[in-house]
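Morning!

This is the sequence you dropped in the shared folder:
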Amino acid sequence: MSTISENIKRIRDTIGEAAIKSDRLPEEITLVAASKTKPADMIKPSTTAGVDAVGENRAQELLEKHSRDAYSGAPLHFIGHLQSNKVRQIVGICDLIESVSSPSLIESIGKRASSLGIVQNILIEVNIGKEAQKSGVLPEELEELLDFSSKTAGINVLGLMAVPPIFGENDKNCYYFDTMFQLYIDMSKKKYDNVSMDFLSMGMSDSYVEAILSGSNMVRIGTAIFGDRT
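The structure's back. Tokens below.
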């Protein structure tokens, strides 16, 4: 059985190959270890083995692991659906909240960050497949949300995040990755205060190569690093 460090090295090599094919340097791709359901003693080896950040999906799980110093050595991202009643607990702990998709959540995050005297970095999650069961702002409503974000104190938008539909067919997968990248490029041309398009977060264990080839510069990988979830 491969160790976590061996898995990360293999993923890094694959990321590097995909980055070069897409005319970028390997170090331009941010590797986020998605640690949902994984215990603290599994997360620490990933931070020492070279991931760029650790991403957690659930607020309660994040807080419990944070109290055990599980994330030391790497920035901490929140990558799951964030409920409004968890904002007070998450803001200020996470270096980046990747899954923000509504004016009310942006307002809550901004108020909490301002009360702490900080600016919270976020990504705007886009529901690029317009799937009813998924969170995320619809593509046609993204500009309006970015405009709202630019006028909200206490937050800094660093880019976009998406969980596109996965079909198991490269052509269909790449369609959504390519569509998301074009939206990212279009938004990069807009000029908003407190908004920059530094990151496009898309691609997971079964799709990160295709995502990088389509323009992603941040991938969230769990199973390929830690093994299957329990």
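Headline: The mean pLDDT is 94.

More detail when I'm at my desk.
O.
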